[in-house]
Amino acid sequence: MKLGYEENFTIRTYEIDNRKKATPAALIRLMQEAAMQNVLKLKLSVWDLEPHGISWVLMRLYLRINRLPNLNEQILIQTYPAGFEKVLTHRDYKVFDDQGELLAYSSSTWLLMDTNTRRMTRIPDFIMQYQQYIPPENECLPRPSDRLPKFEHIDRSKRYEVNWHDLDFNMHLNNTLYIQWMLEAVEDHILQYGYLSELDIIFHLEGLWKEIIKSELQKIDNQSFLHRLSRASDDKELATMQTKWLLPQPPHSFTT
Q1: Does 254 have pLDDT greater than 60?
Q2: pTM of this structure
Q3: Are 205 and 212 in contact (CB under 8 A)?
């Protein structure tokens, strides 16, 4: 039984930045769209699980970007379930251009949430039965296992309110907006001229409708940052993230 799925996408104008390249958040949305189509075909989507009172929730996402696709570029996204681990499931993604070049790859970890208690629950047997069809570990992407560095001080911050249109089908803040809001705290010149090369995010709590959320940043060095998203009301962390960036080389200066 084939568990994987692949789909071609074209980068649209609403997915690009001022350099006519897909934004990291847009690329992640496309990867998750491919994953949604995968679980729909497997009859394991949130709507299939609704009668069981459970739903998928993203817990961790690691993304490596070699190159962001351009406006109107055709890309191929491959995704597949990549294993079970106690109460967790893993899913991998690979993004290729039309020449077969690997543009980006991502490993992710998911859990099942009880939609009544909003707490983590065990994986039922009718999902665990798919374990026999999972690719062997050496064919799956490595999974980040280390904890992120501790967030110690705030160098930059922004605030947001969770609005109705920020919610997903689980009635909490869409996970791509977690990432987008955290990236917004990065210094202006890096957002405008730099390229995100690595992202590693761990989700801790739900962001709920009308909550005020703080996006805070700690600078590690000129190309690396720690991020934290927390509730303004009690300062509890919703997510933590580490990013690494590639910066353009400054122009050479010549003296005579």
Answers
A1: no
A2: 0.92
A3: no
